[in-house]
Amino acid sequence: MVAGQNKLSAPIRVAGVGAGYFSAFHYDAWSRNPEAELVGIADADLAKAQAMAGRHGVQSAFTSLDAMLEAVQPGLVDIITPPPAHYALIDRASAAGLPGICQKPFCTSIEEAQAAVRLARERGTQLVIHENFRFQPWYRKAAEMIKDGIFGEIYQITFRLRPGDGQGPSAYLDRQPYFQTMKRFLVHETAIHWIDTFRFLIGEPDWVFADLRRINPVIKGEDAGFLIFGYAGGARALFDGNRLSDHVAENRRRTMGELLIEGSKASLRLDGEAHLYLRDFGSNEWREIAYAATSEGFGGDAVYALQKHVTGHLLAGTPVENLAADYIRNIEIENAIYLSADQGRRISLTGQSGA
Predict the structure, then answer these.
(1) 26: Cβ–Cβ under 8 A, 6 or more apart, which residues?
(2) How far apart are CA 207 and CA 346, in angstroms?
(3) Which of 116, 161, 216, 310 is the most exposed place for a label (fewest CB within 10 A)?
(4) Where are the beta strands (DSSP E) in the chain?
């Protein structure tokens, strides 16, 4: 808990800002969380706010956070808007003494993100970034296995991003049309998830090298590329991203691709159906690993898992991940990736300050 912040009582009254595509996953998860009560939804487009509220059994819809704060008196604000709105909303929520969750990408620049972190810190309010991929159950299981030493010395981790949604002139228009106009796309919008996930699994990288490209000409930013992360102990992590290619899966957005962890004792493979397979070194047999995975919600119900993680922290003071101050490091690494791609060289990540 942040010093000076009072512990909340259940159910926590949650107010959401934003009624775009991905917000539906947030509101669905809040409606299933026994530690929370969704009490209001705001969006600049009142009709969208009303439609989302009606879909999730919420009585109150608004066009501004200010009006919603006054009317419903929430205990937590969930910010689910595009980045240009983040700083002002964090300012209003923290001024009211309220903890907040903010979607990624976090703010419009690292300077603005750092300023938002300072606001929350100075006002004694909790600010968490909604980076939910590390809460996907297959990554939680992989982290557990790493901690238990199942793989021995980890040599490398590879993730192959293959959602298959980026081909042709209509790419993304049915779901998130702004993807087409983003000047920074693959890394800023998508690979940022694995910057965070690799940090969660094996710690802080020492350097990064990036080779980025644009394949679909209707996209302004990059939509394919390779990111290589180097670690002091010698391990490597590879993000091999291509939004135009696909992989074998009934729902290609469930895992978004395939993972391979290779170590001195064993290797682990994640497929597109969220199955995990372990192979001992020297063996030719992959055996399936049992773990709790669901097809509900987004990404193994990772939105729900993150929200439950935050409400548990606010109610009981349990440790919390994804604090905004810690998330600044992801933005620093993202910026280093674009610098590497521009300059065609490996970029050192040591000596950078974070938040």
Answers:
(1) 16, 78, 80, 130, 303, 307
(2) 7
(3) 216
(4) 12-17, 36-42, 61-62, 76-79, 100-103, 127-130, 154-161, 207-213, 224-230, 236-242, 257-263, 266-270, 276-280, 287-289, 347-348
Q: Which domains does the chain carry?
A: 12-132+304-322 (3.40.50.720), 137-291+331-343 (3.30.360.10)
- Would you write out the chain's pLDDT as a tens digit for each of its 355 residues? 443 445 689 999 999 999 999 999 999 999 999 999 999 999 999 999 999 999 999 999 999 999 999 999 999 999 999 999 999 999 999 999 999 999 999 999 999 999 999 999 999 999 999 999 999 999 999 999 999 999 999 999 999 999 999 999 999 999 899 999 999 999 999 999 999 999 999 999 999 999 999 999 999 999 999 999 999 999 999 999 999 999 999 999 999 999 999 999 999 999 999 999 999 999 999 999 999 988 899 999 999 999 999 999 999 999 999 999 999 999 999 999 999 999 999 999 997 554 4
User: Sign of torsion, CA 179 298 289 149?
Assistant: positive
Q: Rounded to whole angstroms, what are the CA distances from 125 to 40, 101, 241, 270? A: 20, 11, 36, 38
Strand 236-242 versus strand 266-270 pairing type: unpaired
**What are residue 41's DSSP bridge partners?**
16, 61
- pTM of the shown model: 0.94
